[in-house]
Amino acid sequence: MGTSRSLSDITANISPASLKRDFLGDHSSNQRTLHILQWNTLAQGLSNPQRNFVRVKNETVAFETRKWRILEQILIRQPDLCSLEEVDIYECFLQHHLPKHGYTCFFTPKPKSPCFTFQNDTANFKGPDGVLLCYKTDLFEEIQRYYYKQSNDNIQGKPFFAALELKHKPSSTNIVFVGTHLKAKKPFANMRITQTKAILQYLSEHYSTRTHTIIAGDFNGDSEEPFYDMIRQSGFSSAYRTFLNDKEPPFTTWKFREHNGIEDDQCRTIDYIFYKSEGFTPMAILQLPSREDIGCNGLPSDEYPSDHLAIETIFNINP
Asked: How far apart are CA 2 and CA 133, in angstroms?
């Protein structure tokens, strides 16, 4: 594939066809519509099945084919704003393609990325992973960007997040868009509290409570964890919970890992799009597939390149 391939060309050259997904709700567009994509893309450096995904074949995550599936899934529904986590293929691939499809990008690599652990895996190591925020260049005027700079003493619990303040030109509305990737693994629930506090503190110190704000990310914890209530008590709602009768979806990530020779089925909801309800009204969500739709080996699969499913919400921007 050449570097100037259109989306239709990319899709036409992907086989088998990607997992089909549809919106639930009104996904029509107008001047006050805002389409958000949240997705942990799975770092290429962390994709080796022998270390992570016991039911996945090496060819399923081979970089030369997988990179095009990742690009396709970012572009396929043409989101206005993207929060992408575990991105380690920005500098070697995505930065050469996303601008050609109309996106401005803000990449913030992790200073101590776990990908560095696998530098000797020459087939998969592409550099540090990080958060990538993207916006449609023709829809927004960038006001400022921010990312958390890790301190030299590496104080535990510090977050890794990035933020954009943008003017949505069709509605003349200023929007703050935060992307984050909180500390993984269940024992680190307290660290996720500390990280969430830091994000909320940044917002409270720089913006009023009436600011149109969205926080999207892989929070690495379910809705029973304290960080989730902290965000909701700060005036945010979960887009999917709003749409699904006050419940989060059954899962946003599903994989099989191995611990001490025993296969571990990990199926959880840990990805969210939080929004200020005064500023936005969710109009549609991208529906999530069932286990049966995905297949018995979980994710990633031949039809989907990450162990996390993208979640997407179409909002109406309230005046």
From this structure: 24
